[in-house]
Amino acid sequence: MTPRVTLAVTARVLTQLRRDHRTLALLLVMPCLLMTLLAWIFADSDSGVFDRVAPGLLALFPFIVMFLVTSVTTLRERTSGTLERLLAMPMGRLDLILGYALAFGVVACAQAALAVALSVGALGLDIAGSVWLLGAIAVLDAVLGTALGLFVSAFARTEFQAVQFLPALVIPQMLLCGLLVARDQLPRALELVSDVLPLSYAVDAMTAVCRGDATWDIASDIGLVAAFVVGFVALGALTLRRRTP
User: In the chain, how many domains are there?
Assistant: First the structure.
């Protein structure tokens, strides 16, 4: 891996995103719109439902958006022949994957900052912990979606197939991450499955921050999410193909 090459790939992807206004709007605006819709749904509720549900969805929305955009964008680069041309240069697979991950990570920082600021400020999300820690975990969740999207893009031949990974890999995590039923109240078999899903720990970390749990108690969840990110990036580099057959 060469840092100069990795940063060059990052700059190239950021330049492309800056020119693609629709994708940029999807990345930055959509999580904010979804959180606003959620707050509006519970606007007349006095039971604090928004404060209970919002932390988990604040982890979920960036994860889904980044997963979709990253998987489709990477596949488009392959089918257009761009990846083949890039890999013909003196560039390693890890340089390419890390370059994409860093570029979308920069976007994830902006995305998380907007979503957290809107939720805590305008929408009145009540949190007992640190806003900065909440934002950092939101960034990590978005990067998790990016890393998973980079990984699964190697197994799709068309953009439609890339989107099909959403119900296969993302929706089961939504159902088992603790949003609908607390994970310790799931049937034992499902609880064991949830224990190996990265989104479970992302939601746990967000919820713990909003409850005001000690930072040390949250560190293990953050560490596990970060480990999944590193693992998916490594697998993405190993499975990266120059073109889609």
Answer: 1
